[in-house]
Amino acid sequence: MKFKITTVLAFCFLAATPVFAQSWDSEIEGSGTTGSNPVFTSLYRVANSSIFEAPGGDVGIGINRPGGDILHGAVDELKSRADSGDAAARHQLAEFLISGDPAAPGYDSAASWLRSMAFENVPDARFLLGYLYEHGKGVPRDYVQAFENYSASAREGYAPAENNLGTLYHHGNGVPKSLDEAFRWYRAAALKGNPSGEHNLGNFYYLGYATPVDYSQAVKWFRAAAEQGFAPAQSSLAYCYLKGVGVSTDYDEAVRWARLAADQGHPHAEALLGYLYKKGKGLPLNYISAYAWYSRAAAAGDASSPDRLKSLSRIMTRKQLDQANTVVDSQSNPHTPISPWER
Fold it and tell me: How far is it, in rounded angstroms, from Cα 226 to Cα 11?
């Protein structure tokens, strides 16, 4: 039986992280940042289980272990149900393939099911198989196979595959590097409302990759993805409001979008909130909150935050540092109200 598994793979994997060079001002000497342009770092392509969708949102059927593994003996049952059109079973098999341990019992059987679906040229299955090849998950990493599977899915108009195909062209993985082709596929995904595609397209307009620099278009696409709750795009939009790039400078809007992204754990947005608290831009000046957000960002891998923490700690009192470390250690809300003399 041939059927689509759209409820299984209703997510977007790839987002070209807009790591804006974090020289919001010149407060850190020797930080290695120059100017305020965004730069592409390595793309992260991780499945976000919070956007897996199954009918009714209920896939907790009692056969999953923590970490995505499926209890022994359950895969055959899921395959049987999936072949009968059970969307929740298809969803659970896909989640197992993405987040489960390839050495776990049943993983090979689930992968065999996926290959049979891909053989039928089901776009969602070709997309997921491409993802597994790209990341070497349960199969040897093979960018050419990733390209072939993404291409087959993209030709059917499947937006996540269009976006992922764009990233292969963007970085020359499995195919000669071509920013023109990357732009083409990012745009195709963006026009279908794929948030990763929207965000990647915005970055291309911001950087002038395969198209003239157009900050208004960059903001348009950042906003489209941000309004879908996509944290990297929310962070990019916050930066644009902070610097007045493609929009008028608006610190309140910078705070709003940075907070939305930071509350999802986006490290660059966390660092931006730290900066806004430190400078009192759109927020009350608050060194304790600034320190707490910089600490969160540093722990999440933001490269600028360790230097920012050092710089900030030099102007904080011992009491402020103790309060800030208490907030960090207790994982309390970094939006800590303080008295003016405690800033």
Answer: 15
